[in-house]
Predict the structure.
Amino acid sequence: AQKVTQAQTEISVVEKEDVTLDCVYETRDTTYYLFWYKQPPSGELVFLIRRNSFDEQNEISGRYSWNFQKSTSSFNFTITASQVVDSAVYFCALKGGSQGNLIFGKGTKLSVKP
Amino acid sequence: DAGVTQSPTHLIKTRGQQVTLRCSPISGHKSVSWYQQVLGQGPQFIFQYYEKEERGRGNFPDRFSARQFPNYSSELNVNALLLGDSALYLCASSSREFGNQPQHFGDGTRLSIL
């Protein structure tokens, strides 16, 4: 069975703090894909990043960075110098190599206070 | 280019009624998926259509049905509505059925059952 676990339900930080959102996944597929989405209060899910199972290179994009570790089945997301506009619910999602659908975690609600 | 568009934005129905939700994918995208998001949870997969054929179905009762049209737009139908069907219904499109292509989501239809 495939599963995504986001153990942190809610996180509250003060602006300019760094914050890491955790994601642990389970799959028996040898090829799979991982995604992070952001859902602001308006409701739309916004795609942030994807990672292939065969590519463990970590990535930095501006204030965002992602740490993919196959050995621990984790795909964590770090926001550096958080801003109020980062406040949203963040979802980690998994797609098997021969699947068309995403399996989402329950999400982590991030609140960044000024 | 326009993103994924969904209609209506909000809908209020009573128990036992039927509802049809509509989705237009991003131009050129042939895969459309539907998800149900209950408050406080991650989206749950309902259906995937690709080239007008059903390619996947989540764990939802037969009251839920969908179809995809020649122009790749899609409809989700729910019959005999229950209070538990109250949720945000999200449509997503992607260019391919499988693989690492991200799914792009619409703003959703918020369905309330009274």
About this structure: The interface with chain B takes residues 4, 33, 35, 37, 42-47, 50, 52, 91, 93, 95, 97-107 of chain A (CB under 8 Å). The longest strand of chain A covers residues 88-96. The two ends of chain A are 41 Å apart (CA to CA).
